[in-house]
Amino acid sequence: MNQTYRAPFITLEGIDGAGKSTHVPAMYRWIGEHGLKWVHTREPGGTPLGEKLRELVLNTPMQAETEALMMFAGRAEHIHQIIIPALERGEWVLSDRFSDASVAYQGGGRELGVAKVEALETWTHPHLQPDLTLLFDLSPELAAQRLLSGRVDRDRFELEQTSFFDRVRAAYLQRAAHYPERFLVLNAAQPLDAVWMRIEQALEGLRQKFLKS
Hints:
Number of strands: 5
Strand order of the largest sheet: 2-3-1-4-5
Distance between the termini: 16 Å
Radius of gyration: 16 Å
Structural class: alpha/beta
CATH topology: Rossmann fold
CATH superfamily: P-loop containing nucleotide triphosphate hydrolases
Strand content: 5-15%
CATH class: Alpha Beta
Mean pLDDT: 94
Order of helices and strands: EHEHHEHHEHHEH
C-alpha cells in the first residue's frame, strides 16, 4: 500500500520494441497543458550510481541473480533520491520501467521465478507502488521488427531470442492480471492515436483522483 503523496507515480512498461518512448512527448505536453510539474526518469538509471549500474547491466554478461540484485540496488537509490522527493514536492513522476520490469525480465525472462524478485521488491520498497502502470503489450515478433528498423547498437537484452521475450511478455501479463487496479494494458500494435486516446483517458482519471484527494 502506498503512503499518501501529493502527486501520482506513473510507470511505463513493456518488452523492448513495444514503443513505450513513442508516447512520452505527448504525455509531457498533456501534463504541461494542465499546469502540472513533472519529473521523467528511467530504470536502470535515474541517478549517478544508477547510470553506472545501467551500463554494466545492459552490456556486461552476468548471472541472473547478480542482474536482479543490481537492478534493485539501483532502484533503492532511485526511489530515495528521485522518486519520493519529487512526489513529496507534488511533481508527477514518469518512470520508464520500475519493479514490474524486474518481475518480467529477471523473474520471467531469466527464469529466476517471481517469488525471488517479489521478495526483493518487498524489501526495497514495501510502501511504494505506481499509481498507474502503462503496459505496452506487443508480440515479440513485431517488437523485433521494430528494433531491427530502429537503432543499430542494441544492448544484450535487445539481442535476446524470441523465447526470452515470450517469457517476459507472459510475466508482464500475469503481473497485470494480479494488479488490475493500477495496470492499463495497451495494445501497442494499434495505431498511435488509438493508444494515445486510452493513455489520455487514464491520465485525466488520475488527475481527477488527485484533485479530490
